[in-house]
Design brief:
Keywords: Metal-binding, Zinc, Zinc-finger
Protein name: Putative zinc-finger
GO molecular function: zinc ion binding
Strand content: under 5%
Bound molecules: zinc ion
Largest sheet: none
Helix content: 55-70%
Distance between the termini: 23 Å
Oligomer: single chain
Number of domains: 1
InterPro entries: Znf_put
Number of strands: 0
Structural class: mainly alpha
Order of helices and strands: HHH
Number of helices: 3
Shape: globular
Length: 67
């Protein structure tokens, strides 16, 4: 379960900085196996989209987790 804490941390970090290849591998291997972390990613993605819509200027060129 400690894995999930690490993965959600990486998903959160991905909004603010590029993840390393190794970090993406960890996320990519874990997400298909864990609905909780997929829901977390969806949740923060929606929050991000909502805040961008409100502000109108945030998020240009950001790196997003792949579907
Ligand atoms: Zn998980």
């Amino acid at each position: 379960m400690g894995k999930c804490k690490n993965i959600t941390r990486l998903l959160s970090d991905a909004l603010d900085r590029p993840l390393t290849a190794g970090e993406w591998v960890s996320v990519g291997l874990h997400l298909p196996t864990c609905s909780g972390c997929r829901n977390y990613r969806k949740h923060i993605g929606l929050l991000r989209a909502a805040s961008r819509e409100v502000s109108g200027l945030d998020g240009a060129g950001e790196v997003r987790p792949e579907e």
